[in-house]
Design a protein that fits this description.
Largest sheet: 3 strands, antiparallel
Mean pLDDT: 86
Helix content: 40-55%
Pfam family, one: Phage_int_SAM_1
Keywords: DNA integration, DNA recombination, DNA-binding
Strand content: 5-15%
Distance between the termini: 56 Å
Number of domains: 2
Radius of gyration: 23 Å
Domain Core-binding (CB): 2-95
Region (Disordered): 217-239
Protein name: Integrase
Length: 239
């Protein structure tokens, strides 16, 4: 019986890191998936995770694991499908290296994703945005920071993860003011800022002080600069 542990380790080191250059977020998501799967498989088979074989992680077990995610852990269908995609990726990788387990691998790969209802994305009206901005107490530094964050988010459409990851080098003020971010799939994009947003952000940055290039643009005024993210490619200068 082929052990599952060496396959899983090779999948992370060879496929995800060396071949695909997966981001830190992707690696963490896959890690969480297989941590949950191994815990479930160990409880179901009575074997230690290190003793599990590829044939132990068969289609019935994977199907039961997906049901466990939905009904016991109360995960959304979207999360279930993301976990299944990670499992499919592992078994696709295993297919060429372990043909002796082709039947088990093929049955796992045929497990379909689950259809889900896709709701329309709602949006805030101008009046609702004004109400949010007006709720910030700008007599305090936290209120001024929150006002700058909300205004920047409403105007640029940045995701929360993108917003809190902004550093000084991501922000260009003055003529052609814009912010640069790395979003999902490590795709870089540049979003222009209006004069009001740029002025508000410039005022906040001047109050906050400290121009360390790795420091979060919307961080605490007196908090030391955080360490740079290791999963993020270094910025290239604008042409």
């Amino acid at each position: 019986m082929t052990s599952f542990a060496p396959l899983l380790q090779a999948f992370f080191t060879d496929r995800l890191i060396s071949q695909r250059g997966a981001s830190g977020n992707t690696i963490r998501a896959y890690r969480d998936t297989f941590r949950l799967l191994l815990t479930f498989a160990a409880a179901r088979t009575g074997k230690r995770p290190s003793a599990l074989g590829i044939d132990d992680i068969d289609a019935p077990l994977v199907a039961a694991f997906l049901e466990h995610l939905e009904h016991d852990r109360h995960n959304q269908v979207r999360t279930r499908n993301h976990r299944l995609a990670a499992i499919h990726s592992l078994f696709s990788y295993a297919a060429t290296g372990h043909p002796e387990h082709a039947a088990t691998i093929q049955r796992v790969l045929t497990i379909p994703t689950k259809r889900r209802q896709r709701n329309l994305v709602s949006y805030l009206t101008p009046a609702e945005i004004d109400a949010l901005l007006g709720a910030c107490d700008r007599s305090t530094w936290t209120g001024r920071r929150d006002h700058a964050m909300l205004l920047l988010t409403a105007q640029t459409g940045l995701r929360i993860s993108e917003l809190i990851s902004l550093t000084i080098t991501d922000v260009t003020l003055g003529a052609a003011a814009h912010v640069r971010c790395v979003g999902k799939g490590r795709k870089q994009r540049i979003t222009p800022m209006t004069a009001l947003t740029a002025d508000t952000l410039a005022t906040w940055l001047a109050e906050r002080g400290g121009w360390d290039r790795h420091r979060a643009a919307l961080s605490h005024p007196h908090r030391p600069a955080p360490q740079p993210r290791r999963d993020r490619a270094p910025h290239q200068p604008l042409p």
